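Hello again,

I reread your note about wanting to compare the complex against the isolated chains. To keep things tidy I'm splitting this into two emails, and this first one only covers the full assembly. Below are the input lines as submitted, including protein chains and any nucleic acid or small-molecule components. They are followed by the predicted structure of everything together. The single-chain runs will come separately.
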Amino acid sequence: MLSLIGRRLVQLLPTLFLVSVLIFLLQQLLPGDPATVMAGEENDPETIAQIRRQYRLDQPIPVQYLYWIRGVFTGDLGESMRLKAPVLDLILQKLPVTLQLASMAMAIALVIGITAGVVSAVKKDTVWDYAVNVLSLWGISTPNFWLGIMMIYLFAVTLGWLPASGYVSPFEDWRQSLATTIMPAFVLGNSIAGVIMRHTRSAMLQALQSDYVRTARAKGLAERVVVWKHAMRNALTPVITLGALEFGTLLSGAVLTEQIFTIPGFGKLIVDAVFNRDYAVVQGVVLVTATTYILLNLLADLGYILVNPRLRG
Amino acid sequence: MTAQTIPVSAPAAPEAIETPGRRAWRRLKRRRGAMVGLAVIVIVVLAAIFAPWISPYDPIQQSWSAVRKAPSAAHWFGTDEVGRDVLARILYGARASLLAGVMSVAIAIGIGVPVGLLAGYLGGVVDAVISRLTDAMLACPFLILAIALAAFLGPSLTNAMIAIGVTATPIFVRLTRGQVLATKSEDYVEAARAVGNPHWRIAVRHILPNVLPQLLVQATLTVATAIIAEASLSFLGLGQQPPTPSWGSMLNTAQRFLATGPWMAVFPGLAIFVTVLSFNLLGDGFRDALDPRSK
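Full-complex prediction:
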C-alpha cells in the first residue's frame, strides 16, 4: 500500500508542476504591462519601476517563474497589495471558515443525497423515483446564488428566523455560528445533493441486482435489512469517493455563496482580490485550491482502492 | 443533429433502413422530459432573437415614475430600482446567457476536439503532454479558474465567454481522446489505414463521427454549466457590463432590494433555472437516446 501511495504521489508531480505553470502564466494575460496595471492609478514612473524590480518583472518569464515557485516552496505566495499582508497568512486565516461551511454542506448533501438516492432505487419507476429525479434535477439546475438570495428573502427578510449575512466562529458562540452558516451550507449542499442522489441511485440499483442481495432475500431476511445493511453498505463506497470529487464544486460554489451571505472565507477573499486587482492573492487562492483538490482526489482514489481489494493489483 | 449514413450494398426496402440520426430522434421523441426541455429551449431562443419585437418596453429605458413597481398588467414582472421593465430585461438578457452558453461551448469544442483527436491518435509524448495539461486544468475548480481568467482578461461578456470556454476545454479533450483510443484499433480504422488514407482523413472521416454522439451529450450539458457560469460572472460584475441586461447582473442588483422589490430577484433567477433545467433535461435525453443499449 505504501508503495502505491508513493507511486501515486510521483504521478501527481507533473500535474502539480503544470498547475503551478498555468497559475503563474495567468499574470501574463493582463493586458499591457503588468507593472502599470499593478500600480493602478499611480502613474509615477518611479513607482512602476519599483514594482517591476520588486516583482522581478524585468526578468525573463522562466526566471520569474523560478523565483515565484521558489517562494511557493518556502511558503511565500507573495504579498497582498491591498491588505499589505502575506498571501499565505490571509489564506490560512480564511480557510477554516470555508472548511466549516464546506463540511456542513457536504454533511447536508450526503444525508439528503444518499437517503433520496436509496429511496429512488428501492421504489424504482414509482412516483417516489420520479420525485427524486425532479429533486436531483432541481439541485443540479439551480444557480447557488439565486437560491441563496431566495432563502435570505424567505428566512431572513420575511420570517426573520435567521440572520441575512455575517459570520460568527463556532468557538465564540456555536448557536450563533450555526444560525449564520446553516443557510449558506444548505445552498452549497443543494447542488451536490443532486449529484449524490444520481450516484446513489445507480449504485443501489446495481447492488440490488447482485447475487448477494438475492441470497440475502432467499434467506428470508427482512427487506429493510437487505436494503440498508447489505445493498447500501456496498453501494456507498463509490458514492462517498465520488462525493469527495465534488469538493471542487463545493469550492466553486463557496465563491458566490460567501459573497451573498458576506461570509469572510476563501471565496470572498478571491472575489475581493479580483475587484481590487490584487493578483498575488488570486494566484495564491487558485494554487491552494487546486493543490487541495488534487490531494483530495488522491485520497479518494486511495480510499477506493483500500476498500476494494480487487483494484490493488 | 448530425446523421451518419450507413452504406447499403444490397437493395432493401427503404423503410427498413434507419440512419443513426433518425433512430436517435425517434428515441428522443419518446422522452417527455427531453421534449419539454427542447420546447423550452426553442422558446427561449426565439425570445432572445425576437426580443426587440416582442419586448413590451425598452430594456434600458429608465422611468422615475415607475420605480420598483410590483408585477401588474402594465409590467408583468414588475420594474427595477430605476423603473426599467423586468420582463423586457429578461427577454434581452436571454441573449447574453444563450450567447455565452453556446459560444463558450463552441470555443471548448473548437480547441478540445482537435487537441483530443491529436492526443488519442498520435499517442506517445504528444498524448502524455496533452493529458497532463488536461489533468492540470481539471484540477482547478471550474468557476474559480473561470473567475481568475476573467479577472486577468478584464470584465466583459466576450472575455467571460473566453474564460468559460477555455475552462471547459479539458472536458472535451478528455472525452475525444478517450473515444479515439477506443476506436482507433477497430477494424474499419485499420482498413482505412491499409488502403492508404492520410492520417487527417482517418481522424476526421472515420474516427470523429464516432465521437459525435458523446460530444452532443456533453455539449448540451456543458451549455447548462456555461449559462450558470456566465450568470455567476455577470453577478460578480465580470461578465456583461451595465446597462446591457444580463440575468446574473440583474440578480446582483436585486440583492440590494430584497425587502422592497423581491420580484427583481425572483424572475431573473427563474429564467436561469428554467433554461439550465431545459438543457439538462435535453442532455439527459440525448444520453439515453444515443445509448446503444436503449431501444
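For quick reference: Chain A has a mean pLDDT of 86.

B.
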